[in-house]
Amino acid sequence: MSSSDSQPPQDDQQWETRLQQVEETLINLRRRYSQIQRDRARKEQLEAKLQRLQSELESLEHHLESSLVTWKDFAEPFWLAVRFGGLGIIIGWLLNSSNS
After folding, report:
1. CA-CA distance, 30 to 36, in Å (whole number)?
2. pLDDT digit string, tens, across residues 23-50
3. What ranges do the domains of the chain cover?
4. What is the 3-state secondary structure (H, E, C) of the chain?
5. What is the mean pLDDT of the chain?
6. 3-state helix, strand and coil shares in percent for the chain, rounded to the nearest 5
């Protein structure tokens, strides 16, 4: 039996300690990789949800804007302007023709 076949117990213990550290590091790396995978999937879900919400918000804004401004809202002021504007023009013509 040669001296290289039998290692002192201290070398075995160092080897075991280093191996355990490597295993723990690998476990932590796998956990981190799994977390990254979950985070990427969640990010994609949230981006898709954000796009849907933005589209829905734009649609709601369009509906609200179109419902706020209707012909009925402008009908009365429009006809008042036509009536009094037309009346003003007629009075202006009458006053102009009476001065001539």
Report:
1. 10
2. 999 999 999 999 999 999 999 999 999 9
3. 10-69, 70-100
4. CCCCCCCCHHHHHHHHHHHHHHHHHHHHHHHHHHHHHHHHHHHHHHHHHHHHHHHHHHHHHHHHHHHHCCHHHHHHHHHHHHHHHHHHHHHHHHHHHHHC
5. 86
6. 90, 0, 10
